[in-house]
Structures are given as C-alpha cells and as structure tokens.
Specification:
This protein has helices spanning 4-24, 27-44, 49-56, 60-68, 75-85, 89-93, 102-107, 111-121, 125-138. Helix 3 (49-56) crosses helix 4 (60-68). With 141 residues, the protein is an all-alpha fold. It folds into two domains: 4-98, lambda repressor-like DNA-binding domains (434 Repressor (Amino-terminal Domain), Orthogonal Bundle); 109-141.
C-alpha cells in the first residue's frame, strides 16, 4: 500500500506533468530532460543499465529505450526509476518543485477527504484507476 507521502508525490507529479505538457507544450523538452537526467544519475551511481533494471523492476531493454528515445514513460515507471536511483521524480524530470511542503499539504486536507483517501488506497490498483477516472470526469480541466 502506498504511503500518504507517496500519494502526495504522485499527485504533485501529475500536476507538474499536466501543467508542463498540456499548458506549455514542452513535451519534447521534458522528455529530453528525462533522458539526460536518467543517464546522468545512473552513471553517477555507477549503475549499468542491467543493474538499474534489476533495482527498478523495469527491463534492461526499456531502460535502453528510455535513454535513447524521446518518449513519455508511464508515471509508475518514472517513479520506479526515481526510487531505484534514490532521487525524487522532480530530479529525474528536471522539474522544479513549486508546491506546498508535505506537512502543509496534509494539514490542508479535511478529515472527511482524508478518510476517503485512506479508503481509496485500500482498493486494488484497477479499482483505484476507476475512481481516478470518475474524479477526472467530474472535475473541469
């Protein structure tokens, strides 16, 4: 089960990606920063692609693909790579973190919402995806 801090980080990441990609159309720049940072952090840590693959649970072939092709990996893959490299997703993406600190964010959530978040986190990943789609459909862009 994901911790509230991990949920918070993923929510912030989704916000940053939405803001950067959809609002400012910097898809290619973000992908290039991801490629550069992935290679940089991997080599700084002395990992081969194979070692990073083992640490992240992502195949070596996909690591090689991410390092050589401008693409947008799924958020779960970005998160797995950041964890394996012991960095934040922001560092991996070259994005600046411009949101509330975790403690401020958590304290701003009312009790009822927090109870719902905890219930949602108990669902299977598939059921959570359904909930997220429903919320996305209800909220304006």
């Amino acid at each position: 089960m994901l911790s509230i801090h991990k949920v918070y980080e993923l929510v912030k990441l989704k916000h940053i990606l939405y803001f950067k990609i959809l609002k400012y159309d910097v898809d290619v720049e973000l992908s290039k920063a991801f490629i550069t940072n992935l290679i940089r952090y991997r080599t700084e840590r002395g990992y081969t692609q194979k070692e990073l693959a083992e640490r992240s649970g992502i195949s070596q072939r996909m690591i090689a693909h991410y390092e050589t092709h401008v693409s947008n990996p799924p958020l779960d893959k970005i998160n797995a790579l950041a964890d394996a490299l012991n960095i934040t997703v922001y560092q991996l993406l070259g994005a600046e973190e411009k949101v509330l600190p975790v403690s401020d964010f958590i304290s701003s959530i009312d009790g009822r919402t927090m109870k719902h978040i905890k219930k949602i986190m108990q669902l299977t990943p598939e059921d959570r995806a359904v909930v997220y789609k429903m919320v996305d459909a209800l909220l304006p862009e």
